[in-house]
């Protein structure tokens, strides 16, 4: 077992609520502080520990992600363009699930749960049953509702809603809203990967202070903050060079640095780092420092996400799920059939869909062969013939050049042994 794995197992076995420190782990397990630090950050990303300001890092109970990102009943009113007939005090409550009241009332009790939403038409008995079981009701078709039902909704504090849409349309709209939430939830955010409670220097610090902090942490890049904890600069080992200890940090720091918010997508942050040539970005809330994100943290979060089951599908995922992948000597090969979701209005595979497949094939080639995460620099593609529906196609992506900071791949799309499209992809490597 590696040192890293041994530390992770040690952390998992700690009692919930136990305080953890880099020095403590290093001493207890006879490893370097750098190894202990990296393990703690991995444990934080995996949800086993949490770092709180002025408290420190503690062992927490690992919580599994919720299966559904819940809508509130107030949001349901908006998305179905409805109105509230009763139970206004319960509008803030979350929707746990919804069901359509298309069955006999005697069959409904086994399906209606507290916090759920019954979508039903002009059926007073079903409306009352749902409210009595502490579920909300959405009456479709614009039907009027009996005053007895409205009074009951107010009494149990569960929303009684109305919409002019039919039941099928309402269910479709709500399902689409939930689906969009699921897709958004899958996007890795900076808050999922950042280092909280980071080391920093104040605006009145000196080069000598930087050297002390470097010796203590072995980190060479630090955000600089003012007396209100607002980020005003970044200082790195390249900035200090051979300067004397008494030189003020404010004279050598890079001023007005790029910053991120906790809700910024990690992928966007990683691309910023590549394009701007930086390896650390401060994370701010109301302009005040709350964390930092490094390239290594960003890559780890993106790799962690790529192994998770997808709850909702993006356009790329819908297209790529139609293909199987095989690793080759110098790249990868995709095989699959053109699908209805890939068609243009004229009934042949759209250039956009084919370009999506080819671009993703190029990225997968770098990932599979060189274990590299990349971002697109340029993409040149040529088409020679159309491809019809339900046709077998093959995509071959080969790495033709790779350096420390960039690489190129050639991608060929083949149908019935003939070349349909060719592309050259130039990508920048996200350095660790």
TrEMBL record:
Domain CBS, residue spans: 194-252, 253-314
Short name of any one Pfam family annotated for the protein: 4HBT
Stored InterPro entries: CBS_dom (IPR000644), CBS_dom_sf (IPR046342), Diverse_CBS-Domain (IPR051257), DRTGG (IPR010766), HotDog_dom_sf (IPR029069), Ser_kin/Pase_Hpr-like_N_sf (IPR028979), Thioestr_dom (IPR006683), WH-like_DNA-bd_sf (IPR036388)
Alphabetical UniProt keywords: CBS domain
Source superkingdom: Bacteria
Protein name: Transcriptional regulator containing CBS domains
């Amino acid at each position: 077992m590696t040192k890293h794995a041994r530390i992770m197992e040690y952390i998992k076995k700690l009692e919930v609520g136990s305080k953890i420190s880099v020095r403590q782990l290093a001493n207890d397990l006879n490893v370097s502080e750098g190894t202990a630090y990296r393990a703690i950050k991995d444990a934080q990303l995996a949800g086993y520990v949490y770092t709180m300001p002025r408290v420190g890092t503690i062992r927490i109970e690992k919580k599994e992600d919720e299966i559904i990102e819940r809508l509130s009943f107030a949001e349901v009113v908006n998305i179905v363009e409805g109105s509230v007939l009763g139970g206004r005090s319960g509008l803030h409550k979350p929707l746990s699930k919804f069901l359509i009241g298309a069955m006999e009332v005697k069959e409904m009790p086994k399906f209606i749960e507290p916090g759920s939403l019954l979508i039903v038409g002009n059926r007073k008995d079903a409306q009352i049953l749902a409210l009595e079981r502490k579920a909300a009701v959405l009456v479709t078709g614009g039907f009027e509702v009996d005053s007895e039902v409205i009074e009951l909704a107010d009494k149990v504090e569960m929303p009684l809603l109305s919409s002019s849409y039919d039941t099928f349309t309402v269910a479709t709209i709500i399902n689409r809203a939930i689906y969009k939430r699921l897709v958004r939830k899958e996007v890795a955010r900076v808050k999922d990967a950042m280092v909280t409670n980071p080391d920093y220097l104040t605006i009145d610090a000196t080069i000598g202070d930087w050297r002390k902090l470097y010796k203590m942490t072995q980190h060479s890049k630090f955000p600089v903050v003012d007396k209100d904890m607002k980020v005003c600069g970044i200082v790195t080992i390249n900035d200090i060079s051979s300067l004397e200890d008494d030189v003020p940090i404010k004279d050598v720091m890079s001023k007005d640095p790029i910053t991120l918010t906790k809700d910024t997508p990690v992928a966007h942050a990683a691309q910023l780092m590549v394009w701007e040539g930086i390896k650390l970005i401060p994370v701010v809330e109301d302009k005040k420092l709350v964390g930092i994100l490094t390239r290594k943290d960003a890559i780890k979060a993106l790799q962690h996400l790529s192994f998770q089951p997808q709850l909702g599908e993006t356009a790329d995922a819908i297209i790529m799920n139609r293909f199987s992948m095989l690793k080759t000597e110098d790249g990868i090969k995709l095989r699959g059939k053109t699908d209805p979701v890939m068609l243009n209005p004229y009934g042949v595979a759209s250039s956009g869909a084919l370009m999506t497949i080819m671009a993703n094939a190029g990225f997968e080639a770098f990932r599979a062969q060189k274990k590299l995460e990349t971002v697109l620099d340029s993409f040149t593609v040529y088409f020679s013939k159309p491809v019809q529906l339900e046709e077998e196609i093959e995509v071959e992506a080969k790495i033709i050049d790779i350096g420390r900071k960039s690489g190129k791949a050639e991608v060929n799309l083949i149908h019935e042994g003939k070349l349909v499209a060719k592309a050259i992809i130039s990508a920048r490597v996200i350095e660790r």
